[in-house]
Amino acid sequence: MRRRILWLAVLVSWVAVGGLALYVTNSPPKLQPATLGGPFALTDMTGRPVTEASLLGKPTAIFFGFTYCPEVCPTTLTELTAAMKALGKDADRLNVVFVSVDPERDTPEQMRLYLSNFDRRIVGYTGTPEAIARAAKAYRVYYKKIPTEGGDYTVDHSSAVYLFDRKGRFVAPIGYGEPHARVVEALRNLARTG
Amino acid sequence: MIRQTLPLIAIAALAACSAPAGPSKVTVADLWCRAAPVGAPAGGCYVTLTASANDRLVAVETTAADHGEIHTMEMDGGVMRMRPLKDGIDLPAGEAVALKPGGMHLMIIAPKATLAAGGSVPLTLRFAKAEPLTLSAPIRQVGAAMGGMEHH
């Protein structure tokens, strides 16, 4: 009986989160894991160590990308910047974090320079390749280094922004390409209720 | 002397007929580069190309950056994938081929100066058949909406 209830709970939560993901991102029906986020040990852009505990107490919007990315990352950061401006004071109640999936090129200095273009409240995290791999795994973020000609490489990566409440519990994703009004609404809800 | 130079002139004349005038001419529309954040190690440029005969965009060069590449980008279940197009881009005769946000683009790696809106980027497009084109691409700021209008 207990087991059955547990399974039912698992099923319900998967359907709920999956349905939410579907509703929010308009993406193909793909179940989102109910457990997202977890322990990490990274470095912020001033070189200070940060962990999952650094984000507790405030709701968080977090996404993974890299500064070499010409379109998805600057577009997402531009959108978040515009949304935070629209939120006004409410934006102060959020952590907004950009985590690099290209730690070899994205040093804390590079992250600081790159993020200086956007809302000052957006912070950048980077770390060793191993630490980034662990963090990406915790957040179930897919990324893969793809070699290109001349020893260069590009990085495939998940594009969604993930929202967490102040206790670090996953709330919802914001898909790439969401209309501005919906991004603002999602962040405002998070700031006021998360 | 005259006997020796005549065939050369003939060859030169032939070459003049076949190469520079070319079997293909490429027309360019909607050329622009995306303004990039300060410190961005790469930038994207977009263009619509129409070739008069079957041709291929094989390379992009710029003096404004370390080098240029031709890429494609796609969103696959929320994952952004970008790949260099080693063989360039096919330009079928008379067909407008659009390089635009969310898809094929020109990527300029390691810009020498920040790609700021209002500026421009000199680009040389090289083709399999047509003469190379050197153009100035205006730099434009892209609005805040993620992914632009074409997403939905």
Q: List the quaternary state of the chains.
A: heterodimer
- What count of helical segments of chain B does DSSP give? 1
The assigned structural class of chain B equals: mainly beta
Tell me the major beta sheet of chain A.
7 strands, mixed
Q: Give the count of helical stretches of chain A.
A: 5
- What radius of gyration of chain B results from the CA coordinates? 19 Å
Topology order of chain A in helix (H) and strand (E) letters: HEEEHEHEHEEEEH
The mean pLDDT of chain B is 84
Which band does the percent of strand residues of chain B land in? over 45%
The sequence of SSEs of chain B as H and E is HEEEEEEEEEE
Could you tell me the mean pLDDT of chain A?
86
Biggest β-sheet strands, sense, barrel of chain B:
10 strands, mixed
Structure description:
The complex is a heterodimer of chains A (194) and B (152). Chain A is α+β, with helices and mostly antiparallel strands. Chain A is 37% helix and 23% strand. Chain A has five helices and nine strands; from the N terminus they run αβββαβαβαββββα. In chain A, helix 2 (72-87) crosses helix 5 (180-193). Residues 15-29 of chain A have low confidence and may be disordered. In chain B, 11% of the residues lie in helices and 49% in strands. In chain B, strands 1, 2, 3, 4, 5, 6, 7, 8, 9 and 10 form a ten-stranded mixed β-sheet that branches. In chain B, strand 4 and strand 5 (79-84) form a beta hairpin. Chain A binds chain B through residues 25-28, 30, 67-72, 74-79, 81-83, 105, 110, 113-114, 116-118, 142, 146, 148-149, 152, 154, 156-160, 175-180, 183, and chain B through 34, 36-44, 69, 71, 73, 75, 77-84, 86, 101-102, 105, 107, 109, 142, 144-148, 151-152. Strand 7 (153-158) of chain A pairs antiparallel with strand 5 of chain B.
